[in-house]
Structure formats: C-alpha cells, structure tokens
Amino acid sequence: VRVHVWTPTGLDADAERALDALEKALPELEKRMSWKAPATIDVIVMDPTDSANGLTMNFPNDFIELFASPFGSDTPLAYYENWVNEIATHELTHLIANDTSLGNYASLRSIFGSWVKPNGLQPLWLSEGLAVFEETSLTGGGRGRSPLLEALLREAVIQHKLDASDYTSLDRFNGGVPWWPAGNTQYLLGYVILSLPTKEIPNLPGKISYENASTWIFAPDHVLRAVSGGLSWADVWSGAETKLLNERYLERIGADLSC
Question: Which region holds residue 5: left if phi is over 0, alpha if psi is between -120 and 50, else beta?
C-alpha cells in the first residue's frame, strides 16, 4: 500500500473516495512527471471548514490534506464530475512534481535532506497551472473545463485583452489582476499558457516540471527553450489571442455580449 489515508471518525466514506481517486491517478501522474512518488504517501482527510480545499507539503515530510467539503457553485472549481477526483489529482500532482530533484539538486538532497526541492520555487503560475492541467486531463471535470474560464477567455479574445497591459501580462500572472479572475489568475491563466503549445509538444507541462528539477531554479525561459527547441514564455503568450481566436472563437454564434 503506497497511500495511507488518515481521518477522524465519521469521514470514512470521504477517506475511501480519496484513496480510490489517489490510487487511480498515481501511476499516470508518475508517468507524466517521469518521477516516482515517495514510497508512502500520507493523506489526511478532515473537515475543519465548509470550504473545499486541499494542500500539499513536501517539507519536512510529503503529505496531503484534503477537506471533506464539495466545491461551491460560484467558483471556477464548480464544474466537476467528481470533486474528490479533481482535488485529489490536483494535490497529488503538486506532491510528485515538487518532490522531483535531479542533477546537482539530487546530490545536495542526499546531504541536506528533503528541503532541497527546486520545483517548489517555480513561479506559481507554472506549478498551479501544471496541477490544473493534470486535474483537467485525468478527470471528467477540472478548472480547464469550467464555463467561467471559457467565458473569461472568449470575452478577453473578443475585446483584445489578452495582449493588453491594462488587463494583465505574463509578469503579473503570480499577483493576479484587480478584477476577475483575481486570485485565480495563476491557476486559470497558468493552465491556459501551459496548454497552448501541447498540440505541438505533447505532455509539455510534465516535461517542463521534470526539466526544471535539474536546472537553475529561477530560469523558466531556459527550461521552456530546452523542451520546445527555442520558445520563450513571452513567445507563447504573445500568440495566445490569435491561437484562441482561430481555434475556438472564429465563428461566434449570437450577439456579442459585453463582459
């Protein structure tokens, strides 16, 4: 048994659902991340809040906390097939990706222990975008299928906002924007930018995560160039509006509605 689930009395059914979701997602995520998860993964299922959420810790030990509460109806998380699958897959992605340590980092880790984990220092839009990508790819729901995300992208493309500095820019993905999606920016637009080149470069997010675990930790463009053959993140994002327009929104049905 590689996944151990701990829970207080009364949450046994939630714990069983979480265990089932994690055991199904684990082998596929290890394949995509090119990294074997820790031999034992401790998962704590609890209900300290009415809000759906979870967290992953990679230091000093690897463990996941999942809150036994479904997503609300007014968030980008609301479009789900099975909310336990989405949140468990999201957090397990973080655990595997952030545990990866290669090259010099592997040598340092053998000396200094589990705090040497370079992927934990990536920009948030890369780490959260990866987790949203996997929760969407490996489940029937996920934020990548959210109607709220679709509405944001469609309206942003129609109004030519994705390349407009008065809306957002790549260097502001971590801090969000003062209007929607605000604090969800690193999750939603991180997912979008990671998804844009995946037709040309399959499993791009997983490859980037693996490559980052062996290189200079504050060089996201260097990692992308190594995987893509020369692209920078600015190159990817500068073509986002045109690509989305041509592939998704060129033929619009009905009248344009302002956001």
Answer: beta
Buried b (16+ CB within 10 A) or exposed e, 49-81: eeebebebbbeeebbbbbbbbebeeeebbbbbe
Host H or E run for residue 41: strand 41-46
Structure tokens of 171?
A: 């260097």
- pLDDT score recorded for residue 15: 93
Tell me how far apart the alpha carbons of residues 159 and 153 are, in angstroms, rounded to a whole number: 10
- Count of CB atoms situated within 10 Å of the CB of 98: 25
Mean pLDDT, the chain, integer: 88
Q: Which residue has the tokens 């045109």?
A: 242
- Can you give the pLDDT at residue 259? 45
Amino acid at 130: L
